[in-house]
Amino acid sequence: MANDLLKKRVINFTDWEQEAEKRITPHAFTYIKSGAGNEETLRANEEAFYRWKIRPRFLKDVSERNLSITLFGKKHPTPFILAPIGMQGIAHPEGEKATAKAAQNMNVPFIASSVSTYSLEEIAHESVDNSRWFQLYWSKDWEITSSFVKRAEQAGYEAIVVTIDTALLGIRQGDLTHGYSPLKLGEGAGNYFSDPVFLSRLNESPAANIEAALKELVNVVYEPSLSWEDLSFLRKHTNLPILLKGILHPEDARLALEHSVDGVIVSNHGGRQLDGCIAALDALEEVAKAVGGKIPVLFDSGIRRGPDVIKALALGADAVLIGRPYIYGLAADGQMGVEQVLLNLGADVDASLALSGLSSIKHISPEIIVKKG
Ligand SMILES: Cc1cc2nc3c(=O)[nH]c(=O)nc-3n(C[C@H](O)[C@H](O)[C@H](O)COP(=O)(O)O)c2cc1C
Predict the structure, then answer these.
(1) Residues in a beta bridge with 70
(2) Atom of ligand 1 nearest to the CA of 245
């Protein structure tokens, strides 16, 4: 199938989005594509990149390029990480298992979501040799939270990514119009229905009473009371690096340092949470300055092409998370689609780096971009 898509010139983000739309249900496609509210922030994420322009230098021997980065002592061949995306079963029957296999083949770390269709153990099984991190939706039932973290450690996950921008779910117009919630349909139950603590909270097994099990899941999935002091609970339960995903304010970056967090991810959840919120790229420079190189700064929300990656790294990111592009690849062509999206993006970053006059990701500095308009 991948060859067919190549022949059809399915190359860039828009091509993959169109292929995905042809292959999955309109409800699932809307769920993936949509942002919150009026989608002001969803649009702002991409538009923010247009305001920065690369100022290339020439005659600098770019015949050999190095795209590798090092994070938490581990070297990776590209500056990509696959963002946590829940409920991948709505995009493809193999869901996160296909993504995990692609991630392993491409040597790109994969962040498995708390609300995955498959369990974290099943996902780990498909990517035994690859770096994988676990994204935590801190459950209202804290024993489930600690159980998830313990399971992730046991299954060889290398970091815990706590998503802090989801005290509750953003208001997504398209899904409301469709009356569609994949969580309520059980597409995100992989980790919960395999969790001993979660199961102990039910009077009947999910097989015996699916409605009650899903009701409990929806009830405990988020923890709106979470505050900075609570991070010590997580620290007590794991020695893995802890990253906070959703940092947009330099003051929160400073608080993250104060609370001994190991990394931050500048992100607005792809415009799916607070509409009217600043573009993630517009937050990056200040957050990176506040962090001052003490811990890694990762970035997502709006990465579509190679030059976007160069711009994010120039503004202070150490790596970028790929979100919607790979889910469209998954929807269009399963594992092969994810691999092809990463290959295309890698080729685009490689070309953009060389054409900027740089031979290594390590040489990207603020100096190579200028703000216009
Ligand atoms: C369909 C979908 C599901 C997502 N699920 C999660 C999730 O379970 N946990 C999480 O932290 N972020 C989730 N995200 C946000 C992504 O991790 C990432 O922040 C976002 O996709 C980046 O924006 P972009 O895709 O526009 O580049 C999801 C995003 C999408 C599109």
Answers:
(1) 75
(2) 11
Q: 64: CA distance to ligand 1 center in Å?
A: 34
pLDDT of residue 225: 98
**CATH superfamily of this structure's domain 2-371:** Aldolase class I (3.20.20.70)
DSSP code at position 170: -
Domain ranges, ordered by start, for the chain: 2-371
Most ligand 1 atoms within 8 A of CB, residue of 113, 269, 311 to mutate: 269
Task: Report the mean per-residue pLDDT for the chain.
Answer: 97
Q: Is 207 exposed, middle or buried (0-12, 13-18, 19+ CB in 10 A)?
A: exposed
Structure confidence at residue 347 (pLDDT): 96
pLDDT digits (tens, 9 = 90+) for 203-260: 999 999 999 999 999 999 999 999 999 999 999 999 999 999 999 999 999 999 999 9
Q: What is the dihedral of CA 108, 137, 183, 143, to 10 degrees?
A: 120
φ and ψ at residue 264, rounded to 5 degrees = -125, 150
